[in-house]
Amino acid sequence: xxxxxxxxxxxxxxxxxxxxxxxxxxxxxxxxxxxxxxxxxxxxxxxxxxxxxxxxxxxxxxxxxxxxxxxxxxxxxxxxxxxxxxxxxxxxxxxxxxxxxxxxxxxxxxxxxxxxxxxxxxxxxxxxxxxxxxxxxxxxxxxxxxxxxxxxxxxxxxxxxxxxxxxxxxxxxxxxxxxxxxxxxxxxxxxxxxxxxxxxxxxxxxxxxxxxxxxxxxxxxxxxxxxxxxxxxxxxxxxxxxxxxxxxxxxxxxxxxxxxxxxxxxxxxxxxxxxxxxxxxxxxxxxxxxxxxxxxxxxxxxxxxxxxxxxxxxxxxxxxxxxxxxxxxxxxxxxxxxxxxxxxxxxxxxxxxxxxxxxxxxxxxxxxxxxxxxxxxxxxxxxxxxxxxxxxxxxxxxxxxxxxxxxxxxxxxxxxxxxxxxxxxxxxx
Length: 429
Prior knowledge:
The chain is an alpha+beta fold. It has 8 helices and 11 strands. It has a 6-stranded antiparallel beta sheet. A hairpin with a 4-residue loop joins strand 3 and strand 4. The longest helix has 21 residues, at 224-244. The termini are far apart. The model is unreliable at 28-33, 36-42 and 328-338 (pLDDT under 50).
């Protein structure tokens, strides 16, 4: 038999007829030496209605160097050293719904929930704005009494000198508790004019006294806010100097004249002010003034000394009732100088001294607070009596109360409140 030349390590596989060819025939006895891998040139056998009987192929000895025959298409080659596959017993076909699930099958999954319906899409070119949510009312929202005043966004005041819209302060000594606030009125906020009220408070450590000054600049004077600030600082400095001199009683004439002289020097700059400087100071820097001091007494009460120029007033608040101390024109025993304003001086000063009870509070304020307060029986009086029966823990609380909104009341408001120290402890939650 003729040997075919093969490359080293390579065995040429035998030729196999494609799957559509007729099954291989058993070699006849006349062709004992015909190799099974040689192709047959006979035409493909047409299948008949009777399927031909198939016999298992006879095993053939593999020649040396010959590659093992490939399995026919569609038939799997059994693994080496494996047992011949066993033909399973014929089972009657089962209905698809009755067939058992295959091994290692995944458990049936729960049906998916349908997604929530989407909102309708807006028309092209239309942008839908998110719903507007109103913020909850806050603790520091402006208090409205009656009909609120319509207030737009405030305009900035002049920058020289700097005047903030609102100032507040608060502190306590061993015997006294102080709260103060000054807010710009709605009229000045809308017009961009500065706050014309001013206040100064100081503590004299040696005597445990608190000295103060409250001023209200005249609206017709273009620089009255400067006059109010100068008058307050000058009056407090002079009172502190008199306490350092260990005076038993304040020299109120000296206090008022020092404040008026400071306004005149603002215009004169240098040298002694003339009559022309005085007229200019009255026209541009005019301001009212209330100055005073508070001394704590051994029995828990307060001694209050006051002097007044103009319409700035003072009250004593006891058990929800307001008792005027200054600025009531209908009371002949209480001086009223509403027509006067520094640097003009009254013909005669009438200082006042009072002793406040241990459960009372001293209030000193400008007419922006005094006019809506009235006799204290209205909404403003009720608001202040409830908020100031004890010292508020936070100093800004007084500014919040003072900045109430009520129609027709749009002037600047300034208020000073002084309590005995024990009232702070009583009001603690």
